[in-house]
Automatic annotation (TrEMBL):
The gene is mdh. The active site is at H187. This is Malate dehydrogenase. One of its GO terms (biological process) is tricarboxylic acid cycle. Pfam families: Ldh_1_C, Ldh_1_N. Catalyzes the reversible oxidation of malate to oxaloacetate. Residues 156-322 form the Lactate/malate dehydrogenase C-terminal domain. Belongs to the LDH/MDH superfamily. MDH type 2 family.
Length: 328
């Protein structure tokens, strides 16, 4: 029998937490043969609801679930953690400036980064879901100098999945026929979903589409603004699809990308593709044995260059803002 993996979820009592925990416990995060122990980290006001979710987890009698612990202390929540899903964040409220938002989230992600640094397992892998995800990941990473920097990642897999689905709809292909799509940059409205290297049933996707106007005026804004469209339709932000993407992100990181395909992850830049080193930006990556590599050597055309640069510029501004606030 395998040793259980400790998975910590912050914001466990929230919408995404509710859609996420049951799939972790049923084996979708790591594999159908990997036992898990869950740690639910909440703020004091969220503890009671987290206990309710834990009762329901009990009631599922998941064979792989070997324990649930609930806490509002990050030092306890991240103790021995192998995987940390940082979902809880301070949402933007009316009238809030970007600086206020970054500062409020600094108050969450800095202490969590420190607790990860001091208490997590040596093989800790961190996925930041809570927005602004890329910069929150940067803050947590900076507070964890003893953890290898590349273990801090931010979620752009939901954007990736949204792009796959939109492209499949446009071309009449199945999602499973589409490979090598890329989300570049920030998980925000400046993100750039790139189909110039994508393949649909082996053919170049941009050529199959053959319509740059559609790319610029339809596809890119639809993917980038999908979050707002979901709020408009559902009256609440994406939760099940966000949870699904978090599952996909970690599953792919741990279990590897398929031969001939890649995925998109927000990861610390090594300077590839002109993205300043250290920024946590989305790239095309392949994964294997729990590690990832940026796909190298892609030709970046002018259309793509301008859009990647704009999103990376926004990331650099966010980094400068949190640096000025003393958060990194
Ligand atoms: P929610 O408001 O339903 O839940 C958030 C939970 O986090 C609450 O239960 C709250 O008590 C908890 N929380 C707040 N501060 C905490 C702290 N310091 N420690 C532990 N828990 C804390 O929000 P929802 O819908 O679950 O979304 C969570 C985050 O995910 C938001 O920031 C949202 O913007 C983001 N998101 C990111 C996506 C992505 O693609 N990267 C997609 C969708 C949402």
């Amino acid at each position: 029998t395998r040793t259980p993996v400790n998975v910590t979820v912050t914001g466990a009592a929230g919408q995404i937490g509710y859609a996420l925990l049951f799939r972790i416990a049923s084996g979708h995060l790591l594999g159908a043969d990997v036992p898990v122990r869950l740690r639910l980290l909440e703020i004091p006001q969220g503890l009671k609801a987290a206990e309710g979710t834990a009762m329901e987890l009990d009631d599922c009698a998941f064979p792989l679930l070997q324990g649930i612990e609930i806490t509002d202390d990050p030092n306890v929540g991240f103790d021995g953690a192998n995987v940390a899903l940082l979902v809880g964040a301070r949402p933007r409220t009316k009238g809030m400036e970007r600086g206020d938002l970054l500062e409020a989230n600094g108050g969450i992600f800095k202490p969590q980064g420190k607790a990860i640094n001091d208490h997590a397992a040596d093989d800790i892998k961190v996925l930041v879901v809570g927005n602004p995800a890329n910069t929150n990941a940067l803050i947590a990473q900076a507070a964890a100098p003893d953890v290898p920097a590349e273990r801090f990642t931010a979620m752009t897999r939901l954007d990736h999945n949204r792009a796959l689905s939109q492209l499949a709809k446009k071309t009449g292909a199945q999602v499973s026929d589409i490979k090598k799509l890329t989300i570049w940059g920030n998980h925000s409205a400046t993100q750039y979903p790139d189909i110039f290297h994508a393949e649909i049933a082996g053919k170049n996707a941009a050529e199959v589409v053959g319509d740059e106007q559609w790319l610029a005026d339809d596809f890119i804004p639809t993917v980038a603004k999908r979050g707002a469209a979901i709020i408009e339709a559902r009256g609440a932000s994406s939760a099940a699809s966000a949870a699904n993407a978090a599952i996909d992100h970690v599953h792919t990181w741990v279990n590897g990308t398929a031969e001939g395909n890649w995925t998109s992850m927000g990861i610390p830049s090594d300077g590839s593709y002109g993205v300043p080193e250290g920024l946590i930006s989305s790239f095309p990556v392949t994964t294997k044995n729990g590690t990832y590599e940026i796909v190298q050597g892609l030709d970046i055309n002018e259309f793509s260059r301008a859009r990647i640069d704009a999103s990376v510029q926004e990331l650099a501004e966010e980094r400068d803002a949190v640096r000025a606030l003393g958060l990194i």
